[in-house]
Amino acid sequence: MNETVLVTGGTGFVGGWTVVELLRQGYPVRVTVRDLSKEPALRAAIATEVDPADRLEVVAADLMSDDGWPAAVAGCRTVLHVASPLTATRDEQKVIRPAVDGVRRILRAARDGGARRVVYTSSCDAVYYGHPPRTTPFDESDWTNVDGGPMSAYVKSKALAERAAWDLMANEGGDLELTSVNPIGIFGPALSASATSSLGLIQRLLSGTPPLCPDLWFGVVDVRDVVDLHLRAMQAPEAAGQRYIATSGEPVSMLDVARALKQHLGPAAKRVPTRKAPDALVRLIGRFNVEMGDLVPLLGERRAATSAKARRELDWQPRPWTEAITASGESLIRLGVV
Asked: Which of 75, 92, 109, 291 has its CA 20 to 30 A from that of 333?
């Protein structure tokens, strides 16, 4: 507990909660941000859950530059690499290059700085895309085939970045250990109005835009459970060299999510749509809107993944998906985002 843990991307949704839970468990934490002007907002967000006091250090480092990383890693036996670009774009290199170069940069800095283990936040995007439909769930032995069909630049970035991480470990990892956590759709409470990017779907539903729900299906996991799995992977010796999928269960539809918001939030969810959008309409809008265009290949598809390995090996027990969705909506309302 006296060893400082480095967290990359502390201003993000997952990164912020990672800092909170580490502080709660008594760890000193060093967190990277691209711009130190974000430090006051970061400290304020963390303080809504736990007093950072003098156990939180904020340093500047960018995934696209070597500057700052040796100092960031110095003295840290564990690195939780949570930072990742999240953007909707048709320019693949705007998201793929920072993801791939970033994870390589972190691993090399951790290795050279004497760190023991890196826990890397990957995604189920690196697991189950580019494959024919199947009835059995995907697991940690599966890998996305980036040449297997249409997929967004973000999906490709997650798949290529995790492949790059394991390749680097095999070829030049030295004594460093790597564990990856592969979450499905991450929901749950936001710490601040500036750390809500993963909750865009909930924000749009509560705002009534779009007025209809596309036929989309996805797994759900609470951000607090994702962080819990990171810390279990960080602490368990047997987690070295392993991948762990984080999902609460079977995929749910956007209509399921909308109905859950209606049921649990009452009048605050009065604008949430509860009718399905025709696929043809979604495809038409997707021709002109990048975010909607990224969804077109996913219409009607139900990709299931299993978290049996994390439950079995690390005794991980996630919340029900409805709790994560409800907490998302409640926090967005409380923060005045909708």
From this structure: 291
